[in-house]
Amino acid sequence: YAKGFLSQAGESLTQTEIDQLAFSAKLMTFECGMRFLTDYLNGDTYFKTAYPEHNLVRARNQFALVADMERKMDQSAHRCTVNEIAKNMGGTLFGAPPYFSEGFLC
Predict the structure, then answer these.
(1) Neighbours of 73 (CB within 10 A)
(2) What is the 3-state secondary structure (H, E, C) of 32-97?
(3) Is the C-alpha dihedral spanning 5, 7, 8, 14 positive or negative?
(4) What is the CB neighbour count within 10 angstroms for residue 62?
(5) What's the DSSP call for residue 25?
(6) Is the dihedral angle over the CA atoms 56, 57, 62, 63 positive or is it negative?
(7) Which of 38, 29, 37, 44 is nearest to 58 (CA)?
(8) d(CA 13, CA 10)
(9) What is the pLDDT of residues 44-101, one digit of tens each?
(10) What's phi and psi for 80, nearest 5 deg?
């Protein structure tokens, strides 16, 4: 996902934003879980639900996804970071076509 996003984001992202992309995905997922949980606790007034505990199920699923993201981030020390992906997009951060040089393993 990072390759496609970075190839289309152009020069609009700062280095700080690039540095925070992986964390931001986890944070937004957690935030969504909190919104589902809050709505459940407030009587399901914001999100449309199909059954009484729908928002609670949604919240639990979001929190499970956050936990899975954290496990995978911990296990991915050998994988490429978003910065490495950006740097390997043809010499400039965003000016290159969305492919990687041969031999790059990410």
Answers:
(1) 14
(2) HHHHHHHHHHCCCCCCCCCCCCHHHHHHHHHHHHHHHHHHHHHHHHHCCCHHHHHHCCCCCCCCCC
(3) positive
(4) 20
(5) H
(6) positive
(7) 37
(8) 7
(9) 999 999 999 999 999 999 999 999 988 887 765 545 666 666 666 554 444 434 333 3
(10) -75, 145
The DSSP code for 106 is -
Place of tokens 């999100």: 47
Number of residues in the chain: 106
Helix axes 54-75, 21-41, angle to 10 degrees: 160
Q: 3-state DSSP call for residue 101? A: coil
H-helix or E-strand containing 104? Answer: none
Type of residue found at 59: A
Q: Which residue type, as a one-letter code, is found at position 2?
A: A
Tokens found for residue 97:
């076509």
Confidence grade of residue 30 (pLDDT, cut at 50, 70, 90): very high
